[in-house]
């Protein structure tokens, strides 16, 4: 990570917050700072609870309570236990906030050509995708984790629709059969992806059930999960990883081939694993900046890949 990159991101953040007027205590000309105005928006007409607001906005609980107390003191919200709701004055203020915000953005866009507006919107969408990708947390969880099993249930339901022959959920790896690590990807508290590996034999493992929720696709999360599984396997003495998949899963096929996996002959009696792949993990080196491991890998030819490995049933 370059110092110049950090400086440029910080410079953009300073410019953007200043351009939107977020630094003043009279955001959009109203008699309150941006934080309180944002809370009026988030509480909305249906109200909200303090835990939801805290988690959604990433605010310290004491700070959040202080801002809500300030809004309550202005007669804009009422607090009942942990629930906040807008008063009539609060709803009027929120409607005015919406109108001012829309007018401000319209004025900004009005100074641009049609092409510039398109470029701005496209750039903002790309920034959002990249920031979402950076914010997704990938962590190891127990195989019987309810969140992980919920992900696998969604995975099985999707495959049941995707595969012409359907998908039998009973073929999912049971928690007691996970001899390696199960990873879960979480975005803002919501599970959005999973994957696991199990041991097949000495130094050989299989990656299974690599899945990303539809709402989180396009963020590079599949590659992130695959890479983390490879790192974890290598750090646990695995030299070779295998996986099987179905021809209908074209995006998965592109991911595996683009990640250095070679096509090999079938090694599983699971009917959905109609294509099989293998990759050799040469070394695992701790990354000093983050404490994470980085795997350097090379592919093994299909003819050599079938030697010396004990295989068992496989699932994607």
UniProtKB/TrEMBL annotation:
PANTHER family: AMINOALKYLPHOSPHONATE N-ACETYLTRANSFERASE-RELATED, AMINOALKYLPHOSPHONATE N-ACETYLTRANSFERASE-RELATED-RELATED. Keywords: Acyltransferase, Transferase. Pfam families: Acetyltransf_1. This is Acetyltransferase (GNAT) family protein. Residues 136-282 form the N-acetyltransferase domain. Gene3D superfamilies: 3.40.630.30, Winged helix-like DNA-binding domain superfamily/Winged helix DNA-binding domain (1.10.10.10). Signal peptide: none annotated. InterPro entries: Acyl_CoA_acyltransferase (IPR016181), Bact_Acetyltransf (IPR050832), GNAT_dom (IPR000182), WH-like_DNA-bd_sf (IPR036388), WH_DNA-bd_sf (IPR036390). It comes from the Bacteria. Transmembrane segments: none annotated. It comes from Actinoplanes italicus.
